[in-house]
């Protein structure tokens, strides 16, 4: 979950609009990827259980 805006990355869904296919593990998301909602860096995310 993005600590800035609360957007949640779902590994099952990926982030198709950013070129990250469904099923992509968080660890496999590139370090230069940014939050599609607010532009926060990957390091600004924290693992959460939903």
From TrEMBL:
Taxonomic superkingdom: Bacteria
Residue stretches making up the Rubredoxin-like domain: 2-48
Name listed for the protein in its UniProt record: Rubredoxin
Cofactor note: Binds 1 Fe(3+) ion per subunit.
PANTHER family: RUBREDOXIN (PTHR47627), RUBREDOXIN-1-RELATED (PTHR47627:SF1)
Cofactor(s) the protein needs: Fe(3+)
Organism: Undibacterium rivi
Keywords from the UniProt entry: Electron transport, Iron, Metal-binding, Transport
Record InterPro entries: Rubredoxin, Rubredoxin-like_dom, Rubredoxin_dom, Rubredoxin_ET, Rubredoxin_Fe_BS
Family of this protein: Belongs to the rubredoxin family.
Organism phylogeny: Bacteria, Pseudomonadati, Pseudomonadota, Betaproteobacteria, Burkholderiales
């Amino acid at each position: 979950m993005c600590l800035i805006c609360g957007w949640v990355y779902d590994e099952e869904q990926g982030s198709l609009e950013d070129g990250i296919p469904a099923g992509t593990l968080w660890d496999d998301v590139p370090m230069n990827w940014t939050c599609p909602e607010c532009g926060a860096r990957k390091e600004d995310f924290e693992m959460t259980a939903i």
